[in-house]
Design goal:
Layout lengths: L1 H9 L17 H19 L4 H26 L4 H21 L7 H22 L4 H19 L2 E6 L5 E5 L5 H11 L35 E2 L14 E7 L8 E3 L2 E8 L2 E8 L5 E7 L4 E2 L3 E2 L6 E3 L2 E5 L4 E5 L6 E6 L18 E3 L2 E7 L3 E6 L5 E5 L10 E5 L2 E8 L2 E5 L6 E6 L12 E2 L4 E5 L6 E9 L2 E10 L10 E3 L2 E6 L2 E6 L5 E7 L4 E5 L4 E5 L4 E6 L6 E7 L10 E3 L2 E5 L3 E6 L3
Parallel strand pairs: 3-31
Antiparallel strand pairs: 1-2, 4-37, 5-6, 6-7, 7-8, 9-10, 11-12, 12-13, 13-14, 15-16, 16-17, 17-18, 19-20, 20-21, 21-22, 23-24, 24-25, 25-26, 27-28, 28-29, 29-30, 31-32, 32-33, 33-34, 35-36, 36-37
Helix pairs in contact: 2-3, 2-5, 4-6, 5-6
Length: about 600
């Protein structure tokens, strides 16, 4: 009896000698994939890649790693199929739910690019810890690993990215700089400017040779002449005249006489503001009840005002083109450049600074219209020229082969058109059609010009010639020694100076060969002081750096912190003063002599 009982009790624990051990879920495949993902992120952060190279490569790498991870999860994780599908559904469902509940700045593409890789990493760590646990405990652990990063990011707000694509994150309930600025304006209404309806008329403004009348200056080339400044900033540094908060936007200021004109976003309205150049006090405001806001690039207008023939022309990020009386802010006429078309604002907003010439105000609308010209005095349409469906550049006036023309660089390539009629004179097809452009074509002689070649992958020299009625445009050389992204370059004699990614550099114009590359100023902008062969660089972080424009080596002469916030707007030098605008501040400094 006892023997029988003993045999019966022992039977359940018996296993044949050749029985296979239970399968242990592997840990190395997800660890390898996640390690590759973050190693790629780190390496691309160290390499001097252009904005589009870095963004595109990271996007493709993240998508590929996610796909490989999902394939491994479904066919190589070795856990019951029911749990495989359950956790996959949980990963997708929790990300969709958190994305819907997240702040608007982290929804859509932003969530997929920045949050999903973090959630994938959390799942991998949870898998490393819980893969040997029971099915129920493992399921709970992995769902928690997914929910934690999704929940944290749902509590955050993205305040844009840097040129190196670093996220600027805040708690979603914290005030934005714009909200703090609006609250300050509400507390001090007496400091706000009067509206055009109550502004008294005054004498019309007239531009002088030392004014800064449009995007990157009167010639749209980032150069200023007829000015000599002190180069020893240790002994004679720029003196702060005034500094004040402004609403978000990337429009550069312009200066005409004693007036400074800017564009910014204030809540639900785009604003054109006129300020006193002596103290920054607002003189008048013009408001349009529209708002443009995009997660990666932020809110506000992008284009820079243009002063011409006694009028002020502005283009907002949603497509509202205004002609204003610069003395009072009253609207002479206003146009929505999208009206009567299927055109929509591009991903990062309309950014074309108006070009005023031949009695016309010319802007880029994209879509089926391309370049649009309006009568400068009445706003009536004059002509349109098809130039490609997307671009963030502005029309550029030039004289090539003896003929005045408007140059424009878009995703379709480079064209030259007759400014009076819009008739296309010549074109040069893009080697990378469809990619957005953001850099001005830069004429360097009556037959040569520089362009940022094919979505900031380098620089190209273009030669334009005319034989009777026939035009020809060809590339003399293409160089990857200078790869501007959203940072324009300047030309001083036989050399060009600008940003190759985040590092400043110099190339020669003969063949595009690099002379030197040094000085990390975070995707900044540059102005050339031509008479002294000086370069005034404003870094993305708000630092102002004075350099000698020398082809043999970089020579830094001085630097100081000009503004807080992120600087993507071009600096301005007018009447011996430097104006720097960030997404939060506008400051004016007197340059010593």
């Amino acid at each position: 009896m006892s023997d029988s009982t003993s045999t019966h009790d022992a039977a359940p624990n018996y296993q044949p000698a050749d029985a296979a051990p239970p399968k242990v879920p592997p840990v190395w495949p997800p660890l390898v994939l996640v390690a590759i993902l973050w190693a790629f992120q780190f390496v691309t952060g160290q390499l001097e890649l252009t904005t589009f190279e870095k963004f595109g490569s990271r996007f493709v790498a993240s998508a590929l790693i996610l796909l490989l991870f999902l394939l491994w999860w479904l066919f190589g994780s070795r856990i019951p199929w029911r749990q495989r599908f359950g956790i996959l559904a949980g990963f997708i469902g929790l990300n969709i739910l958190a994305e819907r509940l997240a702040h608007s700045s982290l929804r859509g593409m932003s969530w997929g690019i920045f949050v999903v890789p973090v959630a994938l990493t959390a799942v991998t760590l949870g898998w490393l810890i819980a893969r040997r646990w029971s099915s129920a405990r493992r399921f709970a652990a992995l769902m928690t690993a997914i929910a934690l990063p999704c929940g944290v990011f749902a509590l955050l707000r993205m305040d844009g990215i840097s040129g190196e694509q670093h996220l600027d994150l805040s708690w979603r309930w914290s005030q934005t700089p714009e909200q703090r600025y609006l609250a300050q304006l509400a507390r001090t209404p007496a400091a706000s400017a009067v509206h055009p309806s109550t502004t008294q008329s005054s004498a019309p403004l007239t531009a002088q040779s030392d004014d800064w009348t449009g995007f990157r200056g009167p010639g749209r080339d980032g150069a200023v002449s007829g000015l000599s400044i002190a180069t020893d900033w240790a002994a004679n540094p720029p003196r702060l005249l005034w500094r004040m908060p402004v609403g978000p936007g990337w429009s550069s200021p312009i200066v005409v006489g004693q007036r400074v004109f800017t564009q910014e976003q204030r809540g639900a309205s785009e604003v054109v503001a006129c300020r006193d150049a002596e103290n920054g006090a607002e003189v008048w405001l013009h408001e349009d009840p529209v708002r443009f806001d995009e997660a990666l690039s932020g809110a506000g207008p992008r284009a820079t005002p243009t002063f011409a023939n006694g009028s002020l022309f502005t283009l907002g990020a949603t497509g509202i083109l205004n002609c204003l009386d610069p003395a009072t802010g009253r609207a002479v006429w206003s146009r929505d450049i999208k009206a009567g078309t299927t055109i929509k604002p591009p991903m990062w907003g309309f950014a074309s600074s108006p070009l005023v010439t031949d009695g016309l105000a010319i802007v880029y609308a994209g879509g089926e219209k391309g370049l649009l010209a309006f009568r400068a005095d009445t706003g009536e349409p004059a002509w349109s020229a098809v130039t490609g469906v997307q671009s963030y550049t502005s029309p550029q006036l030039a004289t090539l082969a003896g003929q005045r023309q408007v140059l424009f660089f878009s995703d379709a390539g480079l064209i030259g058109v007759d400014p009076a009629t819009g008739k296309q004179l010549w074109s040069l097809a893009a080697n990378a059609p469809g990619a957005p452009r953001a850099i001005q074509p830069h004429p360097i002689s009556d037959s040569l010009l520089l362009i940022s070649s094919e979505t900031d992958l380098g620089t190209a020299q273009i030669e334009v010639s005319r034989h009777g009625d026939a035009w020809e445009a060809r590339r003399n050389w293409t160089s990857r020694s200078l790869k501007p992204s959203f940072d324009d370059f300047v030309v001083d004699g036989p050399d060009a100076y600008g940003f190759d990614g985040a590092v400043f550099c110099c190339i020669d114009l003969q063949a595009g060969k690099r002379r030197w590359r040094e000085g990390r100023y975070d995707h900044g902008q540059v102005v050339l002081l031509a008479d002294q062969h000086l370069l005034l660089v404003i870094g993305e972080d708000g630092n102002a750096i004075l350099l000698r424009a020398a082809p043999d080596a970089s020579q830094e002469l001085g630097r100081f912190k000009a503004v807080d916030g992120k600087v993507w707007a071009h600096p301005v030098i007018a009447r011996g003063r430097l104006y720097v605008r960030s997404d939060q501040e506008l400051a004016c400094y007197v340059l010593g002599r």
